[in-house]
Amino acid sequence: MFSLETYVDKFVKSKGPINILSIDVEGFDFDVLFGAGTVLDRTQYLEFEFHVSGSWKKYHVTDAVG
Q1: pTM for this structure?
Q2: Three-state SS for 19?
Q3: Under 8 Å between Cβ of 18 and 43
Q4: Which DSSP symbol is given to 52?
Q5: If residue 13 lies in a helix (H) or strand (E), which one and from where to where?
């Protein structure tokens, strides 16, 4: 298992911008965002799902985007 930042460092060759980043991990999107590190600085458009299950039970959407 990798954090998003580690995954991008290891498997994405380009160091340029990430045009679209879509995260769909069935309720654990907040965990992926938490491990995104500098990847979000490079991301122009981010899409993720908000669930009432998984890690989202402890958080609100404003915790991720605020």
Answers
A1: 0.75
A2: strand
A3: yes
A4: S
A5: none
Cβ atoms of 39 and 21 within 8 Å: the answer is yes
What is the three-class DSSP state of 47?
Answer: strand
The count of other CB atoms within 10 Å of the CB of residue 21 is 19
- Spatial neighbors of 42 by CB under 8 A, at least 6 apart, are 16, 17, 18
Kind and range of the H or E element at 65?
helix 61-65
With H, G, I as helix, E, B as strand and everything else as coil, classify residue 46.
strand
Give, for all 66 residues of the chain, the pLDDT tens digit: 889 999 999 999 999 999 999 999 888 888 898 889 999 999 999 998 877 777 777 777 777 776
CA 5 remoteness from chain centre: 9
Which stretch of DSSP H or E encloses residue 23? strand 18-23
